[in-house]
Design brief:
Radius of gyration: 27 Å
Number of strands: 10
Helix content: 40-55%
Strand order of the largest sheet: 4-6-3-5-7-8
Distance between the termini: 83 Å
Length: 414
Amino acid sequence: MAFRFLDLPPEIRDQIYHDILSCDQARRPPPDDDNPASYHFDLAILHTNKQIHHESKKAFQDNVFIKITTPWSESIEHISSEGRVPIIALGPAADAFGLFHLWIWIDAPGAPPRGTAYSMIICLDDLLAFTRMWRFSNLNHQGLNPHLRLKLILQDPHVPDRKIPKTLQLRLLLPFGLIKNLHSFSVHGAKVLPSVEEALKKEQATPEPSPEECLETATVLKDAGNKSLQAQDFAAAMQYYTEAFAAIHVTLSGRKRYIHAEGYYNLRELTTGSYKGQNGHLARIILRVKLVANVIQLYLKTEEWEEARFWGKRSINLFRGSFDPHHADDLEGDFDRDWAWVQLSAAMGFPAQNAMGKIFYRTALASRALGYKKEEWNLVHAAQVYSPHDEIIRADLRKLMEQGDPDHKAAAMS
């Protein structure tokens, strides 16, 4: 007997429609750490027959979509690449799409006339990623927001003038609390609740933490992470370290670390707190290096050797690249042949030199556990250059020298 889909109970059919047509189910994970997630809606079911079209359409309409419009075409690319915001529709497809609950219109005085506009459609779940990206852009380019106008238009795309529930209004509007000091800002349509608008304006009026406050907060979180690490509460330690990175505008996604708001710290002498008198950019670099060293130590404690080695090599490669860009990714080559970059960086008295020595040594321990002997040898020698008075590193180096280098004599490196 042939199977008839419409013989299934309505609640099962509804679940199948949801599994096919909801944003949650249509979302595809990023193909790699350099690209955003994507969406694939299988709309063919809408064209099966009239009954299935009628039933399945509701599942698709249960999604909450958002339209973003701007007069600058490069903004769309920036939202996708820098903000890692998945885009559902662009260009004419976005212009023709009417099933959105929120229309975000961004422009500036003197911008191209409104006939010149570029639009995109995103899902509600990605709205916070969009506003965070905007926030980081404003921090990085001080004075950006005072030149921008933002207009938000709420609507029920299915029933004109129907009030959107408060819970949904909050989800749609409160993310814009991150967007401050605009040239102008307004909210329109769909009977916006005064309590929601008031909460939004309160968030917008709250000033950004100063660079000094960000660094102080991150330091407190780092120290709390260290205490948790000593207590072998590894999950809590990682949470504290992640929050410490976030406090200084560094976000983590898989094996990618995104450093935002460089301009917020650059070329600015800090005026208060424990970092008073220091350069903000340099103070953040030092704190980042210390946090990386602690994260690697955590992975060593949990015997996650590959993670420890990955994050250590990543930091070392970035560091080496500033002195020796042609060999920035070569940790198994001969450091003695290209030893100048190690000696040069150590001679410069890099402020985070001791923490950098810990990164080299802890990465060496991960390499040892994984059997990368040549890499271990190079890293321990480099660690000793950066931390010449560390007795643990000195003792380990003596053992390696007694064993002999896998490829050549240790004396060649002196």
